From TrEMBL:
<protein>
    <submittedName>
        <fullName>Uncharacterized protein</fullName>
    </submittedName>
</protein>
Amino acid sequence: MTPYSLAFYMDVVTTGTVLGLRPEDSPERVAEVLGADFGDNAYAYGLCRDHGLVEFHWTRASAEGPWEGHHFALQVHRLTHRRREFLEPVLRERYGRFTPRLRFDKLRRLLGRRGVPLVEIPEDPANAPYYRTFWQPESGVGISVIGLHGEYRTPGDLRVGDVYAIRAPLTADEVAVRRERANRERAHR
């Protein structure tokens, strides 16, 4: 048995879902599963629903149009604040205690034992070398990890090797764009 929050993170990375919720699920469906305690950051063409650790994002083509799921993110870095409101009750009930930090090497090792590989992909130049991104190709999940501590660049309460956030989907097309950009940058050096 994998202890506490590690089982949750492994489920998310392996399936590309949060408690079975997919990135394309509706705001109503997300509230049905995660609960009605959330904050909305809404504007005409976008909605970010913040449940604490978990955020879901939607977009729409017009101010009156239906919401279309865009992605979800686990804001793992928030847990370092050790405030209960940053963890959804449904997650606490199902998975128990969550540690304030998630060490990437431990997550990667446990996923590897289950045959779930993580591939490092080029980081956005604006974030490198302070962050590194790892991708699970089958589930389309991206994991952002602290790569180098930098004042005003990375949270002071995270260490090198801590997971900052987990996001889905990170598509093969997005990964290809990052790789092409990195190849162009190397060619111009």
